[in-house]
Amino acid sequence: MALWENNVRKVVPYVPGEQPKVKDIIKLNTNENPYGPSKKVLDKAMELERLKLYPDPAATDLVDTIAKYHGLKSNQVFVGVGSDNVLAMAFMTFFNSDKKLLFPDITYSFYDVWAELFGIPYEQIPVDQDFKLRAEDYYVENGGIIFPNPNAPTGIAEPLSFVEDIVKNNQDVIVIVDEAYVDFGGETALPLIDKYDNLLVVRTFSKSRSMAGLRIGYAMGNEKLIKYLNDVKYSYNSYTMNMPSIILGKESILDDEYFKDTVAKVIDTREWFKEEIEKLGFSCPPSAANFLFITHNSLEAKYIFEKAKENKIFVRFFDKPRINNHLRVTIGTREEMEVFLEFLKKLV
Ligand SMILES: *Cc1c(COP(=O)(O)O)cnc(C)c1O
């Protein structure tokens, strides 16, 4: 090993779900929304002649639109390049304690990667046998807390009172609630941000808004938290948001009817699909997200995963302790789920 390698920051990177290059597949492995952005967004994409200019570093138009949509002031909103970027910025900004950052053992698998990358001490708190978080587990000394609600990859949502208990019992640290899937049936912690200055709520356009390709995420919280986030952002890269994201993101927020319509379709399909697969010997926790976390009473998850892939149906398998007999199945269109259901019927 060359000596310079001693001074390299070595990390084990996060591994995103596969984006297969082959055509004609059914893609249920990375929680995208199958319906695509609204026509108004696509029409607006034709008007991007201003690309020669630098974008507004403050992304003011998008920030103002998001703030208005949620009934907030613009200084309570921070935007970034997907919520992954927003979350990474938040880890860098808020988790600088010597005490441990707490998050569940079964959760979004980027949290431990960022903790390692930024040298943040952390502890993964086991969820119970039904994959549920226990609020009391987080009433211990810590350097910060983060969890998704609904949780991923389980889809389980906790009520607002549960989130408030955790925030209330941890007012000396920042608590981040990652609401990537909240639009599919979760209860948002947004009403608490005026009451608790230590709460940051993070959202994304990638799932419910069907715009994963554009990379837009945002955080909402007390104006002081947002200022600290912006200070770090401007010390790192002022032009994080590109111009198409600012323009098209705004357009997506304005077309609320289309948004609500596609989200309702996904929820309908989820509930129908859940009922159907339960008849086949599958079970899964109640989901408030756009995916189901399924397990079968006799067939192994890995076997189903591989067989599905042979049939050009992609779902997500995590080769990790506690969850390696489960599959995370994104809810596609009704037609896609019918094909997957037929496949499962034959397999079972
Ligand atoms: C998908 C996801 C994200 C990241 O979404 P972006 O595409 O980066 O906005 C963050 N948290 C959770 C829990 C997710 O599932």
Keywords:
alpha/beta, Aspartate Aminotransferase, domain 1, Aspartate Aminotransferase, domain 2, 2 domains, seven-stranded mixed sheet, binds pyridoxal-5'-phosphate
Shape: globular
Indicate the structural class: alpha/beta
Enumerate the distinct ligands: pyridoxal-5'-phosphate
Strand tally is 13
How many distinct helices?
A: 10
Uncertain spans = none
Largest beta-sheet details: 7 strands, mixed
Question: Can you offer a commentary on this structure?
Answer:
The chain is an alpha/beta fold and 348 residues long. The chain has two domains: 16-37 and 257-347, Aspartate Aminotransferase, domain 1, CATH 3.90.1150; 45-254, Type I PLP-dependent aspartate aminotransferase-like (Major domain) (Aspartate Aminotransferase, domain 2, 3-Layer(aba) Sandwich), CATH 3.40.640. Helices cover 34% and strands 14% of the residues. The chain contains ten helices and 13 strands. The strands form three sheets. A seven-stranded mixed β-sheet has the order 2-8-7-6-5-3-4, sandwiched between helices. β3, α4 (111-118) and β4 form a beta-alpha-beta unit. α2 (60-69) runs parallel beside α7 and α3 (82-94) crosses α6 (223-234). The radius of gyration is 20 Å and the shape is globular. It starts with 25 loop residues before the first strand and ends with a helix. Residues 31, 82-84, 108, 148, 152, 178, 180, 204, 206, 212, 217 line the site of pyridoxal-5'-phosphate (PLP).
